[in-house]
Prior knowledge:
With about 325 residues, the protein is of the alpha+beta class. It has two domains: about 5-110 and about 265-320, Fructose-1,6-Bisphosphatase, Chain A, domain 1 (2-Layer Sandwich), CATH 3.30.540.10; about 120-260, D-Maltodextrin-Binding Protein, domain 2 (3-Layer(aba) Sandwich), CATH 3.40.190.90. Helices cover about 30% and strands about 25% of the residues. It contains ten helices and 14 strands. It has helices spanning about 5-25, 30-45, 90-95, 140-155, 170-180, 190-195, 215-225, 240-245, 260, 315-320, and strands spanning about 50-55, 75, 80-90, 105-110, 120-125, 160-165, 185, 205-215, 230-235, 255-260, 270-275, 285, 290-300, 305-310. The strands form two sheets. Strands 1, 2, 3, 4, 11, 12, 13 and 14 form an eight-stranded mixed β-sheet that branches. Strand 6 (about 160-165), helix 5 (about 170-180) and strand 7 (about 185) form a beta-alpha-beta unit. Helix 1 (about 5-25) runs antiparallel to helix 2. The longest helix is centred in the N-terminal third of the chain and has 18 residues, at about 5-25. Mean pLDDT is about 90; it is low at about 320-325.
Amino acid sequence: MAIDKSYLEKFIKTTEFGAYGASLFIGKDDKISADKGAVDNMRRELNKINMKATVVIGEGEMDEAPMLHIGEKVGNKSGPEFDIAVDPLEGTTFTSKGLPNAFSVLAVTEKGNLLSAPDTYMEKIIIGSNLPKNLLDLDNSVKKNINLLAEAKNKKITELSACVMKRSRHDNIIKTLEEMRVKINFITDGDIAGGLSVVGTNPKYDIWLRTGGAPEGVIVAAALSCFGAQIQGRLILDETEIVRAKNLGIDDLNKKYNIDEIVKGDVIFCASGVTNGDLARGIKNFGNKFEVTTLALHKSQKINKTITNIYKKWVQNLYLIKIGF
């Protein structure tokens, strides 16, 4: 079944106001307050929506409020049942330092259609659209995967470009890519934006390789499914995380998840810019108004658009006064 198209606007507003809440702390070197500003606004907007929804990908566990935690129920307790993956502020450091690529993001499916993953690490390979299904494999060597990708895209290996996060845990990946003379773009942060850099009509990169957050992996998979792109991921678990994974219903701890095992069915994905970035422009302030831009995707409706809205600040300020901000 498909998610009713009327819900797209409601979820856009959720990330819009999440982005605005975080934007009040741009450049103020206060990551905690920036995150809280996004969380509080998103929770308020989610609880206005006619739905019975569960946060299956969130920022933490129940005892870590005010985060939007795994297992939290949101919505007004009527209407359809949804699973939600949310990152109220992707880029807390970017926001606190006034740097690009901070945004507020969520993904929505019908109940039972999102992988509920613990807040742990995940190995990931991401490639774009119009390629043979399940082309690459985490158990292949980097060299084999690059050769397969070059052949599928009818490119020379030296024409391929890879996006890799600059971390010591990726040294072996980087060494192989350099030996093969693949073009490498290094980034310091930004798991979701980096993962989406391989899609679109003119993608920046051919492949994204890294070990990063599992929650971000699920969120980016939801967006990738709207583009017909591919991701394969595998959880990396320590002893504590193994217990949490089993509590979430994960029995095969070494399983490799392809995109259709991470996200199923219809998807709504929204990402609203806090600071200027690759996915959306940041918040703009105009006296008593603010402007917010959102990348909005709705899989069943074949919607892929960038939306810009302007709101009066007094509406937001009334809420901030009410909660004693």
